[in-house]
Amino acid sequence: MTASAAALAKQDRLYQLVTQAIEDLRPHLKADGGDCELVSIEDDLVRVRMTGACFGCQFASTTLGHVQERLIAATGRVLRVAPVVSAPRAPSVMMSR
Predict the structure, then answer these.
(1) Which of 37, 40, 64, 89 is the least buried, fewest Cβ under 10 Å from its Cβ?
(2) Number of domains in the chain
(3) What angle is formed at CA 95 by the lines to CA 91 and CA 97, rounded to 5 degrees?
(4) Domain boundaries, position 11
């Protein structure tokens, strides 16, 4: 396996772990009328879109903190989580060189 193939496999695994962790949280958010969607992963930065009741909620920063804790536990990596406000689109993964 080449170095670039190994890096891509590592990125794919990170994407899978982050996606699964967010999917595991979504039923809890939906129970309160909100939701969280993965937008992108760029190195150690995970961008998510808070929707429904989560959008603009005064507890959204607390919810993002919980999302971050779950992602760190799932991946074993320190990840930052940032909300975005934009039209829905497919998630993307970017690798640093």
Answers:
(1) 89
(2) 1
(3) 160
(4) 3-94
